[in-house]
Write a structure and sequence with these properties.
Oligomer: single chain
Structural class: alpha/beta
Number of helices: 15
Strand order of the largest sheet: 4-10-9-8-7-5-6
Distance between the termini: 36 Å
Number of strands: 14
Radius of gyration: 21 Å
CATH class of the largest domain: Alpha Beta
Largest sheet: 7 strands, mixed
CATH architecture of the largest domain: 3-Layer(aba) Sandwich
Order of helices and strands: HEEEHHEHEHHEHEHEHEEHHHEEHHEEH
Strand content: 5-15%
Length: 428
């Protein structure tokens, strides 16, 4: 019995997160045994160039020796205390130094936990119930945020989830990403009801879509005017697209920020933080309850701190951006040779590409209008050439500091070969 068949006997769908099941591209998922640098190895010994990086955390590359050493050293002293430890303060101090908008920060164990807690805090702080989100943005799987969600929800073809109470959905307003006019209209009508806006400053769960000029600024303007809380979900973009994350890149200061992925260095860790007056409403200082038995886990804190210390270096993100651009330039060239329309974009070590002849890809609908079927075929053509891309047309890709020029050149060569093969198949 194969590994996937065996897994399906005991795990729903055989996976512990839906996108992993390959439903978005067809076929069966690979099972990995080890990873190092820019490479992953399957249980049956295949070696692949990896552009997922555990969905973003592995910004230094897999199994970075300094991170592994920090984890091993910390683990030797105990895996969990359920009590304060100095490493929690050390990483909190580091996060606050790198993100000036964060004056106080609370550690949690997952991105979903961070966004869920930030929403509760925003509601508790404002005394309001209504939240605003944007179609195609995914903020984890808490109930309020599974209304027209992105990421795996798009991949599965389900824009909302059963099990979300209708009464809760009534308190969630979904607008179009990059539609500043919709934000203005909504606040003019219902601004006094709105507790918060939550947004991915770069939408990485419907491929990769940057904010249009003025969009984030509009969110900031109306949240300030109406006393609503502006939440940037930087679980993906945090410390990946720039030293100071997307908020530094675009020059817009949120009230709260949610973080994950990079700050755990590959271990389960996340955080939410922001203005001190808002964070003062969290228990034990204030009435908004939030807790977590394994929050601030010392091993995860050690991995995250070791990662952030190596990311917080002059030129680090510029080098990642150059690698991303080199990869995407090669994909554009390969696509042009094959006569395939493609749109690409990137920031730091995060990138996206869609097979579309549109000059502008700025909305969820633009992504849906792209050639998803071609992507599925391209994904498998690349997988057969030992290149591991995200198994969904609605996900961003990730480059690490471990990707070499040789890795990128090899990927481009294989992409060119794959597109030629698909062109031949299409012609036949």
């Amino acid at each position: 019995m194969g590994l996937f068949a065996e897994a399906q006997k005991y795990i729903p769908g055989g996976v512990n997160s839906p996108v992993r099941a390959f439903n978005g591209v067809g076929g069966e998922p690979l099972f990995f045994k080890r990873a190092k640098g820019a490479r992953v190895w399957t249980e049956d010994g295949r070696e692949l160039i990896d552009y997922i990086g555990s969905w973003g955390p592995m910004i230094l590359g897999h199994a970075h020796p300094d991170v592994i050493e920090a984890v091993q050293k910390t683990a030797a002293d105990g895996l969990s205390f359920g009590a304060p430890c100095a490493l929690e303060t050390a990483i909190a101090k580091k996060i606050c130094a790198m993100l000036p908008s964060i004056e106080k920060v609370r550690m949690v164990s997952s991105g979903t936990e961070s966004t869920m807690s930030a929403l509760r805090l925003a509601r508790g702080f404002t005394g309001r119930d209504t939240i605003v989100k944007f179609e195609g943005c995914y903020h984890g799987h808490s109930d309020s945020l599974l209304i027209k969600a992105g990421s795996g929800m798009l991949t599965m073809g389900v824009p909302s989830s059963p099990g979300v109470p209708a009464a809760l959905a009534e308190h969630t307003i979904t607008l179009d990403f990059n539609a500043a006019d919709q934000v203005r209209e909504l606040f003019a009508k219902r601004g006094e009801e709105i507790a918060c806006i939550i947004v991915e400053p770069i939408a990485g769960n419907m491929n990769f879509i940057k904010p249009e000029p003025g969009f984030l600024e509009t969110l900031r303007e109306f949240c300030t005017e109406y006393g609503s809380v502006l939440i940037f979900d930087e679980v993906m973009t945090g410390f990946r697209v720039a030293r100071g994350s997307a908020q530094e890149l675009f020059g817009v200061r949120p009230d709260l920020t949610t973080l994950g992925k990079v700050i755990g260095g590959g271990m389960p860790a996340a955080a939410f933080g922001g203005r001190e007056d808002i964070m003062a409403h969290i228990a034990p200082l204030g009435p908004v309850y939030q807790a977590g038995t394994l929050s601030g886990n010392p091993v995860a804190m050690a991995a995250g701190l070791a990662t952030l210390e190596r990311v917080d270096v002059d030129g680090f993100h510029e080098a990642l951006g150059a690698s991303s651009e080199r990869l995407l330039a090669g994909l554009r060239d390969a696509a042009a040779d094959a006569g395939v329309p493609i749109h690409t974009d990137h920031a730091g070590g995060m990138f996206g590409f869609v097979f579309s002849d549109s000059d502008r890809v700025t909305t969820f609908q633009d992504i849906c209008n792209a050639d998803v079927e071609y992507f599925k075929r391209f994904f498998h053509a690349m997988l057969s050439r030992d290149v591991y891309l995200a198994p969904s047309a609605f996900e961003a890709g990730f480059i690490s500091a471990a990707h070499t020029t040789a890795d990128i050149n090899a990927t481009i060569d294989r992409a060119r070969d794959a597109m030629r093969e698909l062109a031949g198949t299409a012609a036949a």
